[in-house]
């Protein structure tokens, strides 16, 4: 067995939306040994097809593995805002679903002549019609899509009415969980007439016999407590001023974790626990901690229905919060937010969204602009520590939120899951340190 086949399919797909053509290329072992995977390989592939301004989807060597929080898929593209490169993390099951579809990296270029859905699975990629999905709320659009082929929609990344109507504040959504896209992935998709990405994984890849033991030891050592779980805990960690208290425990229906993660850092907010969410829907998954934190600073507890409306419309809640004064009120959030769908010019309010800890604004946007700014060291190099930890996660395929929440977990420990069967130094912590400098060096 090729040692790399324990971690990759060794396949890259290049799909042209204009004519539906698909080219499947071998993934070079030399490239993996040099760049490892994830954002670093995405960046190189993006440069190869730069004239087409592509969207590159990529997995890391640990994506879909037995390593904790191995859920990451990285979407790399040129931001419509400043024309600079961004690496947006897509979590939940996004990464494993792509890798188990038979591809490690997918380069998407061109544009659909009509609204389309890109379906990736079983070693093939097809463009299907998105007829009837435009301007539907995200839950309704996804339900419609699933009814057409219930067995072939394992994981959906979708744009909402905001992107359909050209809003500069749109964001992609993963079901009821929104996303961490705050730099324009939804606008990239809308500009190419691409309504949704459907990822259909099937099976998996083989992993080492010692991985179960490694995983158990690592999780046991984390020793987190039940009361530390859920979105509220993350909000407290990223808001030392106590803003996380804005979300009492009674609003939670269930805590949720991404693929392979032992720590549930998201929470489902049930409509029955907040009279203003509306009994006609199923609530939302509080996955965008930064977006909700910004909303809660503007709306207090009324941030719950506003967040609910943002998820359904495919709007970035952090952007919405920037335009409202403190203690703002909305009688009907969905109706009140229609001005954002139309891209109405508004003046942002001061004092919202300041990054703590010296994190570079450029590097924060480089990684999607939505990761929680959680302290990982508390020292003078706090910003650099956050950036390097996130960059490492984005290369090896591990959820960056998980690595930020557990700063005592060393990257070298994660690399124990990555041993292709020889003593090649390309898989050492030193090599990873060199590799992450590629995404961190500059925003192109």
SSE order and pairing:
Layout: E1 11-16, E2 21-26, H1 29-35, H2 38-48, E3 55-58, E4 73-78, E5 85-90, H3 94-99, E6 105-109, E7 116-121, E8 124-129, H4 138-148, E9 155-158, H5 161-164, H6 185-191, E10 194-200, H7 211-222, H8 231-238, E11 252-256, E12 266-269, E13 284-286, H9 289-299, H10 303-313, H11 317-321, H12 333-336, H13 338-341, H14 361-366, H15 382-396, H16 400-405, H17 411-414, H18 429-435, H19 437-441
Parallel strand pairs: 1-6, 7-10
Antiparallel strand pairs: 1-2, 3-4, 3-6, 4-5, 7-8, 9-10, 11-12, 12-13
Helix pairs in contact: 2-15, 9-10
What would the average pLDDT be, to the nearest integer? Answer: 86
Number of strands: 13
Number of helices: 19
- Global shape: globular
Q: Largest sheet, order of strands side by side?
A: 2-1-6-3-4-5
What structural category arises from helix and sheet content? alpha+beta
Helix content: 25-40%
Would you write up a description of this structure?
By secondary structure, the chain is an alpha+beta fold. It has a domain at 230-341. The chain has helices spanning 29-35, 38-48, 94-99, 138-148, 161-164, 185-191, 211-222, 231-238, 289-299, 303-313, 317-321, 333-336, 338-341, 361-366, 382-396, 400-405, 411-414, 429-435, 437-441; strands at residues 11-16, 21-26, 55-58, 73-78, 85-90, 105-109, 116-121, 124-129, 155-158, 194-200, 252-256, 266-269, 284-286. The strands form three sheets. It has a six-stranded mixed sheet with strand order 2-1-6-3-4-5. Strands 8-7-10-9 form a four-stranded mixed sheet. β4 (73-78) and β5 form a beta hairpin. α2 crosses α15 and α9 packs across α10 (303-313). It is globular. The chain starts with 10 loop residues before the first strand and ends with a helix.
């Amino acid at each position: 067995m090729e040692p790399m086949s324990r971690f990759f399919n060794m396949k890259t797909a290049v799909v042209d939306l204009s004519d539906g053509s698909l080219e499947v290329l071998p993934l070079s072992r030399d490239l993996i040994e040099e760049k490892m995977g994830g954002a670093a390989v995405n960046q190189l592939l993006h440069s190869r097809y730069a004239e087409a301004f592509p969207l590159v989807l990529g997995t890391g060597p640990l994506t879909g593995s037995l390593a904790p929080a191995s859920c990451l898929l990285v979407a790399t593209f040129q931001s419509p805002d400043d024309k600079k490169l961004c690496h947006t993390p897509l979590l939940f099951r996004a990464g494993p679903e792509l890798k188990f579809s038979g591809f490690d990296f997918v380069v998407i270029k061109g544009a659909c002549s009509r609204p389309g859905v890109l379906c990736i699975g079983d070693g093939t990629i097809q463009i299907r019609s998105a007829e009837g999905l435009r301007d539907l709320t995200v839950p309704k659009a996804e339900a419609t899509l699933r009814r057409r082929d219930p067995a072939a929609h394992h994981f959906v990344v979708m744009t909402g009415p905001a992107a359909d109507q050209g809003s500069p504040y749109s964001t992609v959504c993963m079901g009821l969980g929104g996303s961490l896209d705050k730099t324009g992935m939804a606008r990239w998709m809308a500009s190419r007439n691409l309504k949704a990405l459907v990822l259909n994984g099937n099976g998996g890849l083989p992993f080492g016999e010692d991985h179960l033991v490694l995983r158990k030891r690592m999780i046991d050592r984390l020793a987190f407590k039940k009361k530390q779980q859920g979105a509220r805990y993350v909000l407290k960690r990223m808001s030392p001023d106590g803003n996380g208290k804005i979300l009492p425990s009674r609003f939670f229906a269930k805590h949720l974790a991404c693929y392979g993660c032992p720590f549930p850092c998201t929470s489902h907010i049930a409509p029955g626990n907040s009279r203003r969410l509306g009994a006609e829907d199923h609530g939302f998954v509080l996955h965008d901690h930064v977006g909700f934190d910004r909303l809660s600073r503007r709306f207090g507890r009324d941030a719950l229905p506003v967040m609910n409306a943002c998820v359904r419309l495919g709007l970035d809640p952090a952007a919405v919060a920037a335009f409202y004064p403190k203690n703002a009120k909305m009688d009907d959030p969905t109706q009140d937010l229609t001005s954002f769908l139309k891209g109405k010019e508004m003046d942002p309010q001061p004092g919202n969204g300041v990054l703590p800890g010296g994190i570079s604004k450029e590097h924060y946007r480089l990684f999607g602009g939505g990761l929680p700014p959680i302290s990982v060291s508390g020292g003078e190099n706090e910003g650099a520590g956050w950036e390097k930890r996130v960059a490492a996660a984005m290369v090896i395929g591990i959820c960056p939120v998980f690595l930020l929440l557990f700063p005592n977990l060393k990257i070298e420990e994660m690399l124990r899951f990555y041993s292709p069967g020889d003593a090649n130094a390309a898989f050492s912590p030193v090599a990873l340190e060199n590799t992450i400098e590629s995404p961190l060096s500059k925003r192109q």
